[in-house]
Design a protein that fits this description.
By secondary structure, the protein is α/β, with parallel strands linked by helices. Helix content is 24%, strand content 22%.
Amino acid sequence: MNKEALLYEQSDNGRLRCVLCSHYCRIAPGETGRCGIRHNVAGKLYTASYGKLIAANCDPIEKKPLYHFLPGTLSYSIATPGCNFRCEFCQNWQISQTPLESQENLPGVGADTVVGDALANECRSIAYTYTEPTIFFEYAYDISQISHKKGIANVFVTNGYMTDKMIDLIRPYLDAANIDLKSFSERFYKERCGGTLRPVLDSIRRMKESGIWVEVTTLIVPGANDSQEELADIAGFIAGVDRDIPWHISRFYPQYKLRSNFPTPLNILHQAREIGLNAGLKYVYLGNVGEGADTVCPACGERLIRREGFFVSENKIKEGRCPSCGEKIAGVWQ
């Protein structure tokens, strides 16, 4: 169902300037933005993805991944097709790179229905994930307002390429975000993702300053963003924002346009974790490898949360603190 978009301005010669994401597309009449979703119809900007669910699942919150936000709970995870990036290593390319024409047969699902399904499945949060929530912002925004009133938290799993205006609009309803920091290189973002680095860094800072719980993920692609210098730059940036931000270092598996590549060697992941800890980060995790997922007290080393895959098998945290030494463990706990 087409719905008039939020966050756009009149430009010149009948064009509209989208201020939702940091591409700031100027869209001529009859054309779409770089996302392929927002289109100019007779001087108004419309989103074609509203309600077009392509995925809806009850996932452990750890799958997002969020390890310090309501651990052990379920998150109702939804997506519509589309993305404002073109990452050649995309892990969900089958739905994120879906052309607009293929969405026409997807049934429309109302915001109230999504919230009702989340409640029926006893989910503590709704995650806007799998593709890019910025692209289906209007849908996520309507759902988040309803779920907020019902006591259900809202979570973005995002590339971070949104504008300050978008963050400010969603801020009252957004409780947590996992933001991909794919690289610390402008060249990497331009050539491999179709974007730029600076807006992502700005989003991480702004969300954190806005009181949204933030965790960061870096998918390490062999030969692309795995140098010790770049990993140190990423870790140093995160620590400079807040040492309490958890950093998820994720293993790459051949996907999409990089199917001939090889998975990330384990020793690179281990080195990255050491780099993160040496930079002063308190919580550094490994992803897609079956190890390095437990939460450990940064003060005394007590193992506080044990995870088996995406499931919590033990959680010792009491009132947000380590039971052994009393250290405050950053996060949002039940």
